[in-house]
């Protein structure tokens, strides 16, 4: 396509948006609502996947010591754990320290369990040499005397992946439905434009204009609709994610898990929303043009 022809198509697509007025606004709104929900769903899914991966790759095993275990028995347990082939290091955390961690994470209500009422266990935090060895360390630790339980991130990850699968399933279904609605509204908007210019299109056909020459201004109009409709969702998702990231980062500070950093992540989400907007806009226009370009 020649540059002068493409420039004409761009100018014509902008004029058409202006002529359609409120119908164009309706199409913008459909894209805006769609991409706002899609952007939010993508942010949730990608961060849940990130945390699930962090949990699964956590090399720490928390070995909970039975209540009533004497210091000598506790030391004997530590020696047994240290002799395991896959163990890199062992750190002791008393039930008092565990309570402090719980209070720091969940609030002062847990101070009720201070002193003799503390129901928590003393814990050995065993670090495996490699993430793949975590399960083996946990299984061996569970068979040892004076061990109440041996927990590792993989157990939580399995449950979390079930949640992720559900979010992905329903999120995908809702997103596809919203995209279909957006394409439908954009298609109707473009149809009104075509109907108002059907005489012009007929004349262009009579003088030999090709289908692609007639089609391009409408496709560009749909693409602009998708692009402009993506601007507000990008702003809302970016501001909302930065705020939520700052809020939850403080809660996750005491753990080994982190949300995706806003920088690169938001750029990727923004580009994806722009591309989705442009694509559904162009598809809506292409669908509406098929009937009018049949010979």
From TrEMBL:
Part of the ABC transporter FtsEX involved in asymmetric cellular division facilitating the initiation of sporulation. This is Cell division protein FtsX. Pfam families: FtsX, FtsX_ECD. The chain crosses the membrane at residues 21-46, 170-195, 216-244, 264-287. Belongs to the ABC-4 integral membrane protein family. FtsX subfamily. One of its GO terms (cellular component) is plasma membrane. Residues 173-285 form the ABC3 transporter permease C-terminal domain. It is a multi-pass membrane protein. GO terms for biological process: cell division. It comes from Liquorilactobacillus capillatus DSM 19910. PANTHER family: CELL DIVISION PROTEIN FTSX (PTHR47755). The lineage of its organism: Bacteria, Bacillati, Bacillota, Bacilli, Lactobacillales. Its main location: membrane.
């Amino acid at each position: 396509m020649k540059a002068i022809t493409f420039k004409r198509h761009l100018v014509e697509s902008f004029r058409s948006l202006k002529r359609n007025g409120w119908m164009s606004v309706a199409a913008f709104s459909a894209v805006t609502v769609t991409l706002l929900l899609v952007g939010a769903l993508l942010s949730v899914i990608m961060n849940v996947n990130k945390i699930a991966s962090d949990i699964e790759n956590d090399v720490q095993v928390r070995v909970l010591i039975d209540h009533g275990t004497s210091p000598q028995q506790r030391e004997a347990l530590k020696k047994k754990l240290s002799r395991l082939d896959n163990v890199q290091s062992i750190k002791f955390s008393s039930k008092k320290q565990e309570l402090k961690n719980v209070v720091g994470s969940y609030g002062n209500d847990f101070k009720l369990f201070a002193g003799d009422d503390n129901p928590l266990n003393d814990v050995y935090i065993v670090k495996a040499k490699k993430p793949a060895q975590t399960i083996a360390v946990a299984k061996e630790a569970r068979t040892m005397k004076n061990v109440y339980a041996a927990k590792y991130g993989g157990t939580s990850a399995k449950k979390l992946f079930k949640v992720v699968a559900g979010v992905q399933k329903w999120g995908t279904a809702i997103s596809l439905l919203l995209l279909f609605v957006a394409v439908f509204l954009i298609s109707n908007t473009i149809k009104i434009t075509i109907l108002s210019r059907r005489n012009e299109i007929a004349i262009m056909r009579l003088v030999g204009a090709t289908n692609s020459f007639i089609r391009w201004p409408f496709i560009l109009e749909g693409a602009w609709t998708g692009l402009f409709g993506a601007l507000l969702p990008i702003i809302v998702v970016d501001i909302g994610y930065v705020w939520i990231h700052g809020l939850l980062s403080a809660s996750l500070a005491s753990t080994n898990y982190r949300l995706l950093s806003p920088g690169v992540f938001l750029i990727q989400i923004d580009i994806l929303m722009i591309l989705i907007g442009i694509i559904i806009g162009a598809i809506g226009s292409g669908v509406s043009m098929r009937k009018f370009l049949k010979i």
